[in-house]
Write a structure and sequence with these properties.
The chain has 623 residues and is of the alpha/beta class. The protein has 21 helices and 18 strands. Helices cover 46% and strands 13% of the residues.
């Protein structure tokens, strides 16, 4: 700063602002010399002629990046004071301390030029109102922004290059730990953690829903491992639905290494502020995806099948197949929330439609559905169920044996988790005992706290053992020879199992979904029949003819005596009064319901009965 001739009396009458900034908290902690040099600029301002009380130090932005002024309150304060004409000179160690963004930098230059404010750095003093000085300041601002871009590109390039080889060490999900080799990922050495993660995938394979897996953990009273970062100890807490869903959707559990699943975006909010958000990218746009990178809890093919199953559990859009299994009675149904296979109408003469094959509602109450044809669903449900049972009959005995094995495995899995919980509690108690015995007896404050912790761990061991004993006693006994024979007999008579009261509609739909892809319906009204084409998962087709009922439901209408009375009353009374009169006489609607004002109005409008209009009173009155 050798060019002092640019400093005038008007500059010295105003304040000198020293702006101090470091880009991160680590730089504030470790780069102490840079911070000290910036604070020393206050002495330089005094040497240039400003009084000590005229020097203002702005250091609110320590630890903040200069890439944007959105979060820098100190820079906003500086530009405000400059715009008000309160500042005679702005001092910074270099241009990059003031701004790394040309938009913020040139805004400050424009304000300094209009208010006759000087800018000083380690190289000299500049007046933004002078062309040569502004040219130098503009070049410095451009170089500062380019320097930030180069630094970011260099660091990001190294990170991406290492991630492309699968060697970049980022946080691994619960159930994995980093190994000693480059890019090596291993299973967690804790057997309880590994068993809990495996239980999630085993139960999902059986139940088919993330929510039902979560409910299974809560029903069995099992805890789940939780860890916020790699340095924290694992804590066991009741699982949340988010934790279960994260495990089922994380590709790392399938042995894949992935990087770049998200993207940072900037946008302008309603107040005009620049904000940042993280957007999840589809799998096709991930920067790095390396299948079979490390041992996984399941293979990649099973992982993709699980994702398709999870996507199918979501609520579909209108006239789309799939969707979560619901508890409704119909098995073959196409509506806003399709349950099993999509029901497709075939373009036939009887359907009298020129559209191509379209997903249509069958026996649905959806008011906004676009009907292509309408047909009763009872006969169709029965025909599809019969065809399904016929196809499934050869595998009935094998399914019965698998059911018996699954009956035993479900209980064993839960008991294994509780046995591991007892071992974990015993280890924590032993560790607390070792810590208590290692402390010096004279240090009574520490010994008293460790003794309390030891006693608490011992109580947890007793509670875990008591819970394990209770669940072992509640565990059903193994199937006897007679029960096994009865189970095999049921395997040969699947129809009895299908229509049993214990078989819920949800179970029936899940079985149908596993084999049936879609049902194509062609209705022939004149012949009172429907032609069904079942397309199975393997691509095979089965054609069926279903006879439709010939009788039509009787027309329901209000009796003539009630209608005649309604016509007479409507000429003199409103709907509310009419409803009261009809109810006092014991009259009901066509469906046996008591009359209300709405029902009276609906009946009146259906039979074109005019409503009561009160006489208009004259606006003129006598004295």
């Amino acid at each position: 700063m050798s060019d002092d001739s640019k400093i005038g009396k008007t500059h010295l009458q105003r304040a000198a602002v020293v702006y101090i900034r470091q880009s991160s908290a680590a730089q504030v902690e470790h780069n102490r010399e840079s911070t000290a040099r910036q604070y020393a600029l206050a002495d330089r301002a005094v040497a240039l002629g400003w009084a000590r009380d005229q020097v203002i130090v702005i250091d609110q932005d320590l630890g903040l990046s200069g890439a944007s002024a959105a979060q820098r309150s100190g820079f906003v304060q500086l530009t405000t004071e400059v715009a008000l004409g309160h500042v005679g000179m702005v001092l910074g160690l270099e241009v990059s301390r003031l701004a790394r963004n040309n938009a913020d930098w040139y805004r400050l230059l424009d304000l300094c030029g209009m208010t006759d404010t000087l800018i000083g750095d380690a190289d000299g003093l500049y007046h933004p109102g002078l062309f040569n000085d502004r040219l130098v300041l503009g070049l410095k601002g451009t170089m500062s922004e380019a320097e930030l871009h180069i630094l970011r590109a260099r660091l990001d390039g190294g990170i991406r290059n290492k991630a492309a080889r699968g060697e970049l060490r980022r946080g691994v999900p619960i159930g994995f730990v980093w190994g000693e080799e480059e890019g090596e990922i291993r299973f967690d050495p804790d057997a309880a953690v590994v068993a809990a993660i495996r239980s999630v995938f085993e139960q999902f394979a059986e139940l088919g829903s993330a929510r039902r897996v979560w409910l299974w953990f809560h029903t069995e009273g099992l805890n789940f491992p939780l860890r916020f970062n790699q340095t924290d100890e694992i804590r066991w807490t009741p699982p949340t639905y988010t934790a279960i869903h994260h495990i089922l959707t994380n590709p790392r559990y399938a042995g894949a290494y992935c990087y770049g699943k998200t993207r940072n975006e900037r946008y302008v909010d309603e107040q005009g502020q620049i904000r940042k958000r993280i957007r999840q990218l589809p799998q096709a746009d991930w920067a790095v995806l390396i299948p079979e990178h490390h041992p996984g809890y399941l293979d990649w093919v099973t992982y993709e099948a699980n994702q398709a199953r999870l996507d199918g559990n979501t609520r579909p859009q209108p006239h789309q197949a799939g969707g979560a299994l619901r508890e409704g009675r119909p098995c073959c149904k196409a509506s806003r929330s399709a349950d099993t296979a999509a029901v497709i109408c075939a373009p036939t003469i009887a359907a009298a439609t020129s559209r191509q094959a379209t997903t249509v509602p069958v026996r649905t109450s959806s008011a906004d559905a676009a009907y292509c044809l309408s047909v009763g669903g009872v006969q169709i449900d029965e025909a599809v169920s019969e065809a399904f049972l016929e196809v499934l009959e050869p595998a009935g005995v094998q399914a019965a044996l698998l059911a018996a094995q699954q009956y035993e495995a479900d209980r064993d899995a839960a008991l294994a988790q509780w046995q591991l919980a007892v071992e974990r509690a015993r280890y924590e108690a032993e560790k607390a005992e070792r810590r208590y015995r290692a402390v010096e007896p004279e240090n009574r404050l520490v010994a008293r706290g460790l003794e309390s912790e030891w006693e608490q761990r011992l109580r947890e061991v007793d509670q875990a053992r008591a819970e394990l004993t209770r669940r072992q006693q509640q565990r059903p006994a193994a199937l006897t020879a007679g029960e096994q024979q009865a189970l095999l007999a049921l395997g040969q008579d699947l129809k009895r199992v299908w229509f049993a009261p214990t078989t819920t509609p949800r179970d029936q739909k899940e079985l149908l979904r596993s084999l049936v892809e879609e049902v194509i319906i062609a209705v022939f009204r004149d012949d009172y029949r429907a032609h069904l084409t079942l397309r199975w998962r393997g691509g095979q087709l089965t054609e069926l003819d279903v006879h439709l009922p010939r009788s039509r439901p009787a027309t329901v209408r209000t009796d003539e005596e009630t209608l005649a009375l309604l016509r007479r009353l409507a000429a003199r009374h409103p709907d509310e009064v009419i409803a009261g009169i009809l109810n006092r006489q014991g009259r009901t609607t066509a469906r046996g319901l008591p009359f209300t004002a709405n029902l009276v109005g609906n009946t009146r409008r259906h039979w074109n009965i005019p409503r009561y209009e009160p006489p208009q009173s004259s606006p003129w009155v006598s004295l």
